[in-house]
Amino acid sequence: MAEAMIVFENVTKRYQGGQPAVDALSMSIDKGAITVFVGPSGCGKTTSLRMINRMVEPSSGTITVAGRNVSQEPAARLRRSMGYVMQSSGLMPHRSVLDNIATVPRLNGVPKAAARKRAAELLDVVGLAPVLGKRYPSQLSGGQQQRVGVARALAADPPVLLMDEPFSAVDPVVRDELQQELLRLQRELAKTIVFVTHDIDEATVLGDKVAVFAVGGKLAQYAAPEEILRAPANDFVASFVGRDRGFRHLAFNAADAVRLHPVKMVQSAERTVADGGPGEWALVVDADGRPLGWSSPRDGTGLVPGGSLFHRGDTLRRALDAALSSPSGLGVAVDDDGRVAGVLKAAEVLALIEETRQNREERP
Amino acid sequence: MSNIFTDTFAWLADPQQWSGSSGIAVRLAEHLQYTALVMLIASAIAVPIGLYVGHTGRGRVAVVAVAGALRALPTLGLLTLFVLLAGIGLMPPVWALVILTVPPLLAGTYAGVSSVDRNVVDAARAMGMTELQVLFRAEVPNGLQVMSGGFRTGILQVIATVSVVAYINLGGLGRYLFDGLVLSDFPQMLGGSLLIAGLAIAVDLILALFQRLFLSPGASAKPDRSQPAAVDLTDPVTAEAVVQGGTS
């Protein structure tokens, strides 16, 4: 078992005269792992997160971080020992990006020059250009602001990071990017991260463990994401993870065994009889062999946009999606340089899925 | 040909009017002194209360009610009352003016603090700032734009109304109004009025300059992309659509 970093013991939060927002929560959060709190609005996931750094005080019960009861520590000092990233970046509008990142070290008494130097390093860690350091938050895009928010949370190198729906206000493409960045960072830093989201996809992508909260502040299931998708503990969890959970579960199986087939490749969508003429789908590639789209067999003119791409090492979910989203029914697989490695077929991916399932059943 | 305007101009241009113990230069200095004294005392009262109410949200209703009531008091009546109660001297009229100046300063300070995005305040606290640090490192710097608006309104009001102290035999530019009235010397009255108005404009310009120099460009940056406007009029396509009444 992993070492516990944060422990909730019978924690209840009741706002004046209402139903409990969090009801007798007991759970233990692993050190050095990402634990995701997920659930619908009003399930108490954010309240639970905010009780860890005493932004909300529990009505009863105790929370310990690294063995120390949080209610025994001065709130301000406790909060400086944990990074906090919120949905709206919450950056200080009047301070430059560098000074925003330097906030907590400055509160801890680090001299200005040293704090700024550290801030500049962090700018690089979160993938922002040094030139952005002198800007003000309002001059950044939403995605850039969230990166600065993450850098600010990391500035004092706290062992614990609390993240309250940090990526929910950015567009899906940027969100995907930020999620991958977070996973990359976590591989290097191994922080204890508590991450709140209402998006089950985000939870399964990021979480080493996922805690599903039900309305009324009850913990409905707390397990590895793969297990939550495969074996929901009850109807609530099953309905929350949604109808696509079977499909989502494919994201936990590697598709290394899927077969790649050769494909007819052409340099231009304008096909002539010399190219073999219309008759079958042909993949249009650029001079370096990177896919551009498809040339239709019906008329052989005009570029048809391609589907999603399958990269080496991707999961069964990506493999199936590549095949299903492709206009030709053939999923395009590319190598690390983005060149076409071959195509894969939906039927073969399904066969592989079936094989994987049988292997699991045969295992003791 | 002589009319009130040329006479006023002649009065203002007369070097004799500018020198001496009751010259315009001395009167201007007196006027500024009274203004500074009133602003100092009023700020000492209004700013701490405004910061407290803005930060905690406590006593908001009381402050709004009291500030509104104080604004309704008639200046001259209040001045006379204070002189009757406390006698002739500098301080009774100053206190009367302080009472009239506290409301705009209080409202400005309170509004400034509470105008700061609650997410910013929440983040400041979550970073581990103490309540005082939240106030002075997050709320005040970002509320300064609104706060200085209240301060400028207040100082303009004081420059204008501090003239009434001349009514009880004190100095300042108000002397020209009351003396002119008694002597039916209208050019002197008009000249005095112009001086007061000129002083108010000059002071406001200086304050605007200070505001520009000392306010963080980030705190007043526009447009704020984190909270996009419902309609972005800087975008030519949208602007055109709005002008023409919709995007069809």
From TrEMBL, chain B:
Going by the UniProt record, its keywords in alphabetical order are: Membrane, Transmembrane, Transmembrane helix, Transport
One GO cellular component term, please give it.
Answer: plasma membrane
Segments forming domain ABC transmembrane type-1? 32-207
Major subcellular location class:
membrane
Q: Which residue spans traverse the membrane? A: 34-54, 61-88, 94-113, 155-178, 190-210
A Gene Ontology BP annotation from the UniProt entry: transmembrane transport
- Protein name, please? ABC transporter permease
Upper classification of the organism = Bacteria, Bacillati, Actinomycetota, Actinomycetes, Micrococcales
